[in-house]
Amino acid sequence: MKNGLFEYGDQVTISATDEKGIVNTQQLNEEDAVEVKLNSGEIKQYDADDLEFDLDFQPDTGE
Predict the structure, then answer these.
(1) What is the pLDDT of residue 55?
(2) How many CA within 13 A on the CB side of residue 18?
(3) Which of 27, 28, 55, 63 is 20 to 30 Å from 10 by CA-CA measure?
């Protein structure tokens, strides 16, 4: 996360569902939706307010 914007590769948690994922595209403006690739492989867009930057993120390895 840089200057309050999510960056490609940032690890996040979706507030409403507790799902984890990685930001898939650079967020250019605060108003922009953030595309996130969830651990399930699904790609969705979220409002930045719905995401939490996750410093303790551990990717799901499927084990």
Answers:
(1) 75
(2) 0
(3) 63
* φ and ψ of 4, to 5 deg: 80, 5
Alpha helices in 1-63 (DSSP H): none
Pairing of strands 11-14, 20-23: antiparallel
Q: State the Cα–Cα distance between residues 48 and 58, nearest whole angstrom.
A: 21
Residue/partner pairs of 15-24 with CB below 8 Å, 24 or more apart: 15/50, 15/51, 15/52, 16/50, 20/54, 20/57, 20/59, 20/60, 22/59
CA distance 10 to 56: 11
Band of residue 63 on the pLDDT scale cut at 50, 70, 90: low
Kindly report, residue by residue over 13-36, the tens digit of the pLDDT. Answer: 999 999 999 999 999 998 999 999
